[in-house]
Each structure stands twice: as C-alpha cells, then as structure tokens.
Design a protein that fits this description.
The structure holds two protein chains of two kinds.
Chain A lengths: L5 E6 L4 E8 L2 E9 L1 H4 L7 H23 L8 E7 L3 H18 L3 E5 H7 L30 E7 L4 E8 L3 E7 L5 H11 L6 H9 L16 H4 L15 H16 L6 H26 L2 E7 L6 H14 L2 E3 L3 H4 L3 H13 L23
Parallel strand pairs in A: 1-4, 4-5, 6-9, 9-10
Antiparallel strand pairs in A: 1-2, 2-3, 6-7, 7-8
Helix pairs in contact in A: 2-3, 4-12, 5-6, 5-8, 5-9, 6-9, 8-9, 9-10
Chain B lengths: L1 E5 L4 E7 L2 E8 L5 H15 L9 E5 L5 H18 L3 E4 L2 H10 L5 E7 L5 E9 L2 E11 L9 E2 L27 H12 L7 E2 L15 H5 L3
The chains are: A alpha/beta, B alpha/beta.
The complex binds zinc ion.
C-alpha cells in the first residue's frame, strides 16, 4: 500500500461538494455537487446556503464516487479532507463527515490545505496515461516531489482566493509568494458582472461579453504596481507579488456611472474587455516576474478562473517568453473538487507524514505553509 | 445496540441497549462540536470495545438547534451510518427534554425550550400521557413571549424568567437542561420496538429558519 495508497478526498470549503478517489497518482473518480445555482440570486456565495447544501449532497456524492471508481469504502487506505482555508461552517460539514468515515473504517485521517491541494492536481497522471512504472515518481507533472531540482510555482485564481505559491516539495515546503490584499480575482469578476448587469458567476459572463469588446477602450488601473509597492528585485516592496482588485472595481463603477449620468448607453463589451485585460495583465505580469525572481521554471494554473480564455492565452504567452513551462489541468480539476484533496492525501501518505488527530478543527484562515494539520 | 448523537445545543453521545444506557458523554460547549465530538466518540467506542458490527442502528438528534453545530452531529452520523451500512434515524432533539420532564414527574401540559439565539427559543409543547411525553405542538422557533403559558423545561427558559416559567420539579433545575443523546437513544429504541409512534423523523436538520442570506447592497442598487 505504501507506494500506491487508495485515498478518498473530501472537499467542502466553498460551494462545491467534491468527493474524489485517487490511487497513488491515478484518478479513479471524482464527483462534484455544486450549489452555485442557489447562490445566483445573491450574486455571490452565501455561507449558510453552501453549508446546508454540503450536508444534503454529501452521501449521494460519496456513493457516486465510490461507484464510479468501483471500490468499497473499506478498501480505502486513508481519508483526506479540506481543513482550510475556506468558509468555516462549510468546512465543518466535510471535516465532521470525514472524521466519521475515518473512524468507522479505521483509516488514518489527513486534514489538508485547500490551496496546496489545488497544486496537487498537477501530480495526477494525465488523461489516458498509465501510472508511471518504475519512474520513481519524481519528475512527473508541474509539481515534482522533493527530488525536483528546481522549484515549481502555482497561480491559484478563483472566487475565493488569488495566490502565487512556490513549491519546493508538496509534502513539506510550500511558500506563499503573493496574494490579493482585498478581493479575490473571481470576486472582482462577480462584482463587475453585477455592475454591468451580466449575472452570476461573473467569470464566464464577462469572458463572453469581452469577446466583442475592445480591451484598450478603457485604461483601468493595475493595482499595487506603483514603485513604492513593488520596489526592485534586490530591494522588493511590501506588495511586489501582491494584487489588489478593489480599486479596479471602483474604477469600473465610475465608468459605468459616467455613461448612465450622461444618458448614454453603457458600452458593456468594451468595459468587460478592458476590465478583463486589466485583471489578466496584472495577474500574469506579476506571476511571471515572481517565477523569474524565485527560480521557478514550471508553473501550474489552478482555481475556477483558470477557465478564463484571456487569462490562459496571456499567461501562456508570457510564460513562453520567460521560459516557464505552464501546466493547465482540465477545468473540472481546476475548480474545487475532491480529487485534488485525495491527490495531496496520497502524497502525504506516500511521504510518511503523520496523520491528523481526531481533534483537528476547521481552520478558515489556514496558512499555505501548513500543508496538513 | 444503538449509537445516538446529538449536537443541537451542547453535544452528546450515548450507547444504549433497550432502555439501558451503556455509556454516555456530553459537553455544554456550543462552539467546538467539530473538534470534540469525533474524539469523544472514538474514546467511547474503544473504552467499551464497540465497533460498527455491534450496532443495530444509529440515531441522531435532528434539532432544532444552531445550524453550524447541528450539522456537525448530522454529518458525523451520516458518514458513520454509510460506512457501517447501518440504518440512520432522526429524532426531534426537544423530545429528550420532554422525556426527562416526564421521568421527573411533570404533570399535564408543558413546554420544552432551547436557546435559538437572537432573543428567540426553539420550543415544542407536550403532555404527560401516562408516563409518555406526547407531542402537542411543535417544534417551533419564536420569541419566548409568544409561547403558550405553560411550565417550561430546558435551557431556553433560563434567560427569560418573565416570559417562560420554569417547571417546579423537586430537586431539579429544569431551566438549565439541554438535550442528551441518552434520552434520544431510549426514545429511538421505543420507536423501533413499536412501543412509541411519531418519534422518528428523517435524519435531516430541523432548521425551522431560512438561511440568513441577504441580497447584497450592490445587487439591489446596481452599483456600490
Ligand atoms: Zn479553491
């Protein structure tokens, strides 16, 4: 078992109830039940609605995942569950259910970090590939294990988080290089989509509206790019690798207001395209620079905003220019899911990391350096 | 043998066989269910050398109770039942207080009430029917002033002595009572043995309140 642990992963940190099964690096099944429809009329995730939905969806989703994988619960070698960061009430549903499964089956429990789990997706075998035989499992994918000579990076962008990570080893050395200091990028998309009357979730709506717009029509601000925030490579400023999207949102609101006050039609497509360009420009430029300055030669993109067409395009272009190898997992594995939790769990088991105690709490602010609890 | 879990106010666990309580655990803590319930269960099962194979069913308090804590017990119960392939039954957590009141000799009609926060109580009214607590009305949630004027048991009564009159039970402090899994386990046994009716419910939370979701300001105004 030590080489190829069968791990069940449980994810309930936001609005997706995800259950995944992974054997070593092989994805056996992953099932997701989303409560996104229930949040539409609020224009954002309502924690209590999400938590209610997790409890309802847990058992049916678990059954589907086991059935798809063709395994029984008592064959599972370990249970991994997202312990944080995320919405506390939502995390607690998954955590409590995971404790029950681990207790009932007598298997070790791993409370793991959601952000690091996003990165672990890059370790899963690509579609159609067989498990690496005799490869020692050191050179696979975007985030190699301890033996990798170079550091890998990850840009995680979703409605709940926006982070740039440096991964020396996915089981023992993960460092936060930068993050948003206010809104998550996906949140900014939601808010701007709301301003433009495009609906929720904002990411796909703005992406679609932007397709017919001119990204240069408006020059919206790129947050935290002034020299006083960025400094230099030798003498970095406090926010060199950080983002801020609240000023951008305000600038969009002001632009919309000006058209409305003048009684002119709001150029929705141009505003959407210009907003998207501002987000994607600052996300990718800071990411690629952080890669260069931290010796990162391969980068993984994760989180729901990875579905954004312009982000993928510009990031691919800038990574290529900088000689950084970019990996973008399939979108169903970029958004929150249980397979990523199981994938990280499998790495922890294989690395001989101590399981979690029965007492572990849900930690909504879990720092990225804590890979498991 | 039944395993019963309740997390509707404090949190509690019980192993029961018939009317006999084999083991019980509880805490009055209301904010640490996710941390304390599973370790307490682990300890209880190992101290009593009980595994899933020894159990006939799992019972769980479905509330009403504060949502986050309530879900912790339900999620635990669901996953245990799933992994052990055992039937899972829900019970109204207030029934535990009603059973305790009847055991303590309360007469006629009475209220069982727990704290619903926001200056409200979760409550139900019962009648002592020859030693059984018969549900008259409920469960409900509302301000204590709107409850029927009946003697009350349960920690919901404590903070509102002007509106809810604690029942006078010799040697007891019924205004401090919180539901316990041991009583729910006895009730579940009675129901499964065909001696009690109307006790079991779906093992799904009795929220009684809508989730407190508000349409954000920006949504309503269209701008921030
Ligand atoms: Zn995520």
């Amino acid at each position: 078992m030590s080489d190829e642990p069968l791990v069940l992963g449980i994810e309930t940190s936001c609005d997706e109830t995800g259950i995944g099964l992974v054997r070593g690096r092989r994805l056996l099944a992953h099932e997701v039940a989303s409560s996104v429809e229930e949040h539409v009329r609020f224009g954002g995730v309502i924690p209590e609605i999400a938590a209610r939905a997790h409890l309802e969806a847990f058992t049916p989703t678990l059954r589907r995942a086991l059935e798809t994988a063709g395994v029984e619960l008592d064959e599972v070698d370990a249970i991994a569950v997202t312990a944080g960061p995320g919405l506390a009430g939502a995390l607690m549903v998954g955590l409590s259910a995971a404790k029950g499964l681990a207790l009932a089956t007598g298997t070790p429990l791993y409370g793991i970090n959601h952000l690091v789990a996003h990165v672990a997706v890059g370790l899963l075998d690509k579609d159609g590939e067989q498990a690496p035989t005799g490869a020692g499992g050191t050179t696979h994918g975007a985030a190699g294990t301890a033996a990798a000579a170079h550091a890998t990076g990850a840009l995680l962008v979703s409605g709940g988080h926006t982070e740039m990570l440096r991964i020396g080893s996915i089981t023992e050395d993960v460092q936060l290089l930068g993050s948003t200091i206010d809104d998550a990028a996906g949140e900014a998309y939601d808010k701007v989509a709301r301003l433009l009357g495009l609906g929720y979730p904002g990411g796909p709506k703005i992406d679609a509206a932007a397709a017919d717009g001119d990204p240069q029509a408006f020059r919206f601000p790129r947050g935290l790019t002034m020299p006083k925030f960025e400094g230099t490579e030798e003498n970095p400023g406090k926010h060199r690798h950080n983002w801020s999207f609240s000023g951008l949102k305000t600038a969009v609101a002001r632009a919309v207001e000006q058209f409305e006050q003048a009684g002119r039609p709001v150029p929705t497509a141009d505003i959407a395209a210009s907003f998207q360009e501002a987000v994607v420009d600052v996300l990718t430029s800071k990411t690629v620079r952080a890669c260069r300055e931290h010796g990162i030669t391969s980068l993984l993109l994760g989180g729901g905003v990875a579905a954004n067409s312009r982000l993928r395009e510009l990031l691919a272009q800038r990574c290529e220019q900088a000689g950084v190898e970019l990996t973008v997992p399939p979108i169903s594995l970029c958004t929150d899911n249980g397979a990523m939790v199981a994938a990280l769990g499998a790495q922890l088991v294989a690395a001989g990391v101590q399981p979690s105690s029965w007492e572990i709490p849900a930690d909504s602010g879990l720092p990225v350096s804590r890979i498991s609890l | 043998m039944l395993l019963t879990i309740d997390s509707s106010a404090g949190a509690s666990l019980a192993l029961t066989r018939g009317e006999t309580v084999l083991a019980a655990w509880h805490t009055e803590e209301t904010t640490s269910h996710a941390e304390v319930l599973a370790p307490a269960l682990h300890t209880m099962l190992s101290e009593n050398s009980v595994t899933g194979g020894d159990l006939d069913a799992i019972a769980v308090g479905a509330g009403p109770g504060p949502f986050t804590g309530l879900r912790v017990g339900l999620a635990l119960a669901h996953s245990l039942a799933e992994a052990w392939r055992l039937p899972l039954h829900g019970l109204c957590s207030l029934d535990a207080l009603a059973l305790r009141a009847v055991d303590a000799g309360i007469e006629g009609e009475f209220l069982a009430a727990t704290d619903a926060r926001r200056r409200e109580v979760y409550w139900a009214s019962y009648r002592n029917d020859d030693g059984d607590a018969q549900l008259v009305s409920g469960p409900h949630v509302g301000p204590p002033a709107e409850c029927p004027a009946l003697p009350a048991v349960g920690a919901g009564a404590g903070p509102y002595p002007d509106q809810l009159r604690p029942a006078a039970l010799a040697g007891q402090e019924p205004e401090a009572w919180t539901p316990h899994a041991a009583e729910l386990g006895r009730l579940a046994h009675g129901a499964l043995a065909g001696e009690l009716t109307g006790v079991l419910c779906e093992p799904r939370p009795l929220y009684l309140r809508e989730s407190d979701a508000k349409v954000p300001r920006q949504m309503r105004q269209g701008a921030s």
